[in-house]
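quick one, 417 residues, struct below
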Amino acid sequence: MALVLHSGPGNKNAFKALIAAEYSGVKVELVKNFEMGVSNKTPEFLKMNPLGKVPVLETPDGAVFESNAIALYVARLKEGNLLFGSSSIEQAHVEQWMDFAATEVDPGVALWLYPRLGYIPYAHVTEETAIASLKRSLGALNTHLASNTYLVGHSVTLADIVMTCNLYHGFARILTKSFTSEFPHVERYFWTMVNQPNFKKVMGDVKQAESVPPVQKKAAPAKEPKAKEAKKEAPKEAAKPKVVEAPEEEEAPKPKPKNPLDLLPPSKMILDEWKRLYSNTKTNFREVAIKGFWDMYDPEGYSLWFCDYKYNDENTVSFVTLNKVGGFLQRMDLCRKYAFGKMLVIGSEPPFKVKGLWLFRGQEIPKFVMDEVYDMELYEWTKVDISDEAQKERVNAMIEDQEPFEGEALLDAKCFK
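---
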C-alpha cells in the first residue's frame, strides 16, 4: 500500500510531508478529489482522525495525524536521513526549531491572518498582540539567520521544511514587503528555501502579498417578516424618538488600557525635545547637546541605565555583532515613546564588546520591556548614579560617541530615538 496523504491542494501543513518525501525519495500520493468539510467528515476519515482535521497520512501500519509527526514519519523511512541533522546536538536543534516554528511563528501568523479572512472573530486588540508576538519571533529568527544560511548545519533539514511551510501563508497572504523588510535575514532565508527545487516542486511559484487583507464585514442580519395586521388596529401610540444604532461593524473600538508609564506624575523633561536636540546638533556637541541634556534631565521622572553584554567572547565576527545589536534595537521599538538609547560596539579586533546607555521613563526599567524583549536578559543592567562624576562623564562620552571610548576604538555606534 502506498502512502496516501489526505488533504486538499495548497495546504501548507500538507506541504511539510510532501517536501520531506521529495528529499527522502519516498512516494507519497495526495488523495484525489478531497473536499474540505465533506471528505474529512466521513466515518472512514474520522476513524483515522476523530477531530476531522487535515492532513492525515494513511500508511500500511495505520494512520498518522499532526503535520510535524507526519513529516517525521516520512523522513524516517530513509535510513540515515540527513534531514534530522548529522549529530545528536544537531538532531536536538532540528526539533528545537520545529517547535519554535509551531509555537512561536505559526500562531502569530494565524492570529493576524485568519480573523481578517473571517475564519475566526476579529478583535483589534487580539490583532495587535499577534503582530507584536510575531515581530518578536521573527526578530529572534532574524538574529539566528544573520550568521546561518540554514537553521541547523549546512544543508536543508526538517527544521527548514517546517519553518518555511509555517511562514508560507504569512508571506503569501499578509506579510507585505514593508513588514518583512524589518527582518532581512528572514526574507533572504524564505526566498532561498521556496526556490529550492524540492520546495518549488510542491509549492510552485510563491509571490509575496502586496497588501494586508481587509477585515471581513459581518453580514447584516436578515429582516424578520412583518406579522399580518389584525383587522382591528390598536390605537396608535405617540411616536417615540428614533434611536439610531451604529452598524455592528462600525462599533467604536474599546479604549486600550493605559501604559503604566502614562500614569506617572508629569515630568519636566519632554523626551521628544531632547531627541530633537540630539538629532539637530551638528557642531559643538558637548556645549549644546550634552549641556542641553543635563538641563532637561529629570531624575524623578526618568532614570539612566548602563548595559553590558554578558557574552562578549562570542562576538568574533563584526557583521554578526552589528546585526545582533541592530536586532535588539528593532525589538525595543515597543518602548520608543518612553526611551532613548545609545549602543556602542567597541574594539578594532574581535572579540568585540557591546555596551549601552539607556534613558527610561520612571525609576525602573519598564516591566513590559523586560517581559517582551528577550535580549534584555543578555545584558547586565546598572542604574547610573548621577551624583558620581565619573559615571556622569561616562554618560556624556556614550551620548557623544566619544572615541576612543575607555581606551578602545569604536567599531560602530547606534542610536535609539
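The CA atoms of residues 233 and 288 lie 85 Å apart.
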